[in-house]
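Exam revision sheet. Question 4 asks you to relate a sequence to its structure. Input first:
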Amino acid sequence: MSMMLSLIQAGWESVRTAASQGRRADALTQVTQLLSRPTLPPDLAAEAHRLAGELATEAERYPQARRHLRAAAALEPTSARTHYMLGLALERDPQGCDRRAAARFQQAAKLENENCLYRAAFGRAAIRSGRTKTGVRVLLEAVQNAPGEIAVLRVAVDGFLEAGQLKAAQRALTQARFMRPGDRELATMWERTRFETARREQRELGGTTRHRQDAEHAKDGGRVVLPFVRIHTQNDTRQDCDSILRLDMVSQPQPHFPRLRVQGRR
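Answer key, structure tokens:
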């Protein structure tokens, strides 16, 4: 029995080494083989399932990731990390569910209330699932409690922009840039927020501005007055021609025949 445990421990160390060295595909294959052993201790099985779920999520194998993470949650229901990773596997999957992801993030935040990343993830997922007020409130609390954490800001800014809370995103980034001057990722998020602000302002004002600037079009069979066009004749020496206007009429469609070059006879 002790020899079997030693082999299992050695296999687990090999899995962790492969994952830490960036050989994630090899680590996923090894941990899957390790989980097939029936004598795996429950605590090690929970940790192995959680690692397999993380590796599968990074490899975009979301159904496989959820199977491993649900197994880990069944073995350790009080693990906040497991619920958070399961929320990511639901959120990142194009076929996933934002509402279920929000429930997992909320569970992770309840288990670790001081973890602002879990709370920010819940806020963003709540916004995506239609609970905008709750999501914005949670995001504001997360940013207030972790003003300089890039991981939290990355999630919070996404949530603020999706909820249309542009000023909240700007305030959070302004405070973070003051605390972390010169940070490139913060500068990127700041430029993204400025672009989104300008885009939305242009979209809101573009309709009325375009309507004012565009010239009026004549309707079929009708005519339109163009007051900026004046007609002068050769004999007209008047300087004030404001009363002479040109009336444009829409031309009726006529059949078009191509011109044929005819060679005349000499």
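Marking note for examiners. The CA atoms of residues 99 and 129 lie 5 Å apart.
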